[in-house]
Design a protein that fits this description.
Layout: H1 3-53, E1 61-81, E2 89-108, H2 111-119, H3 124-131, H4 137-144, E3 145-148, E4 151-152, H5 169-183, E5 187-191, E6 198-202, H6 210-219, E7 227-232, E8 241-246, H7 249-257, H8 264-268, H9 286-289, E9 296-298, E10 305-311, E11 314-319, H10 323-340
Parallel strand pairs: 7-8
Antiparallel strand pairs: 1-2, 3-4, 3-8, 5-6, 6-7, 9-11, 10-11
Helix pairs in contact: 1-7, 4-5, 5-6
Amino acid sequence: MPRPATSLLVLSLLASGCAYHGPDALRLTRPEYNMVIQQTNEQELLLNLVRLKYRDTPYFLSVEKVASSLDFNRSLSVGATVPEWGSKSFALAAGAGFSEKPTLFYSPLEGEKFVRQMMTPLSPDTLILLANSGWSVERVFAVTLQEMNGIRNAPTASGPTPSNEPEFREFRAALKHLRALQVRKWVELGRAPDGASLELRFAPAAAQDEDARAFKRLLGLDAAREHYRLVPGLGGSGGDSISVATRSLIATMNYLSQGVEAPVMDLEAGRVTRTLGNDGKDFDWQSMLSGIFRVTPSAEPPDNAAVAVRYRDSWFRIADNDLDSKATFALLSQLLALQGGQTPGQGSTISYSISR
């Protein structure tokens, strides 16, 4: 090939690389950043749940921004050699490469921001939003409510692991009835037509339904009514209203941390609290959290893990085939995002209404 043609070919290749390296770099780097940030967010959240089980201090460090610059370097060199017998040879060498300079911005969750996001009770509007977005009302209420019409949902489990079995059985029974009604589309949650209050409304077809009657009986509601106001507060209301007390996000995390199973050696060493049941034997937290949340330990890196972290010389995982625990973990992630996006003194604005 003549030398001028060779030079033009090399220059053409270099120009082509310069023109297309930007989109190629985006295709290569964006999915990687997305996956790593998502995976490390989940690992941090699970790590903090495990810390709470051990009564250690949780700590959140969010990735606020990722800035990455890409440099495209290209080079061209020409060389010539003259052997002893007089012939000449020419050589062209071209090179191109990328270099990336990422800058990560972290933001610790502390001070006023921690109080607003983690210590403020969840808004009832937020719960209605989730329940009307496809989430199981049993899962949402079990995780986020501490009390409903005086029926307690393990309030002692909303802090450090208690020494004695919490009170929760009537609450879970009521939620199972409510979930059965939700599946049959015989109950609605949302704002009343006047927009002034939240309501729980039963379909006319549920009038003689056993789940509806059992739910109303447990909460002390007027069985003849079809709609009941949801009002914030502790203690029983009954009649035409249901009082609900929501947990804060840190209380929700404490509640779910009871689903973290500690290794036997840590139980025997007193590193975690041993909870006793009403029968005086070790309390099985899965009797409260079955179908909600479970984290299992292992000495070696676990197989079949949706997310796993190493802490205190043990591994803790959510099994990849444990769909209930994965769903609750995703719900907790959404609650963190929703609380983080609210401004002080404001809750979520929900536009759901109930037709009469």
